Amino acid sequence: MSKEPDLWQAVIQLTREDADTATDWLTETNPDVLSVSAFEEIGGDYAVTVLLAEEPDRADFSALIEQALGHEPGFTLEPLENEDWVKRGLEDLKPVRAGRFHIHGSHDEPAPGGTHSLLIEAGEAFGTGQHPTTSGCLMALDDLLKRGVDGPVFDLGCGTGILSIAYASVTKLPVLGGDIDEPSVRFAKAAAEANGVGPLVDAVEATGFQHEAVREQAPFGLVMANVLAGPLISLAPDMRRFTRPGSYVILSGLLRHQSRAVEATYRGQGFVIGARYPLGEWMTLLLKR
């Protein structure tokens, strides 16, 4: 007897506007939804892929989408067969080059000469370098380090700690990371040790700047925040409060069409645009106060 599949995948073809609406709606209203991603296809439409913890009732799922969009689009629904996802993930996880940084796993070949090697394994935390937002942050950090930047440095929403590790590896200076997810904090500290910068990288469980260790180090000379557009907008007043004049912030986790709203919000807090790093549908911003 074959084992029932653990996961189900639905794919919905939508316009860009509907894709944004459906992504927000499905993430917020359905507890069985594990993840939602949207990718632009040739022609401008988007394929919205929904990963579900169990097989949904087709009629109920269709009604849920119709409730969000006001119409009923077609969709495909299929099981994902059981597989060794860790092994599959490592096979798919290829080395990434972002500026002078070479991000790789222990299963990869050594980094080429002239690069800064960052060893990041696949795990529970976000930030293996594969996502364009992480690559964009590393490119912005690389450009900034070439010019020179003063600390202290805060990695807000540090995930794997990849940005903290990158900064410490190049400068040999301390950096503080913070994340709302306790496993990510543990992962970041372990990753820092694996990269030989454990004594330089500290990480705390924190929401934004709301932690004693974070406030003690403020005002910061550099804040790196790879989160989402909504939280970045909400954080703008604190970003000004906990940085000093002449400081830099690297913002990512936002789609290109969201960048205008983020830029406008930060301009209102006294920041100016230093550089933009578009990668696919994603955008990373380098701002100076």
From TrEMBL:
UniProt GO BP: methylation
Gene Ontology terms for molecular function: protein methyltransferase activity
Signal peptide feature range: none
Enzyme Commission designation: 2.1.1.-
Protein biosynthesis listed as a keyword: no
Subcellular location: Cytoplasm
Superkingdom of origin organism: Bacteria
One Pfam family cited in the UniProt record for this chain: PrmA
One GO cellular component term: ribosome
Positions contributing to S-adenosyl-L-methionine binding: T134, G157, D179, N226
Keyword tags: Cytoplasm, Methyltransferase, Ribonucleoprotein, Ribosomal protein, S-adenosyl-L-methionine, Transferase
Entry keyword DNA damage: no
Catalytic activity as recorded in UniProt: L-lysyl-[protein] + 3 S-adenosyl-L-methionine = N(6),N(6),N(6)-trimethyl-L-lysyl-[protein] + 3 S-adenosyl-L-homocysteine + 3 H(+)
Functional summary from the UniProt entry: Methylates ribosomal protein L11.
Sequence similarity: Belongs to the methyltransferase superfamily. PrmA family.
Protein name, UniProt field: Ribosomal protein L11 methyltransferase
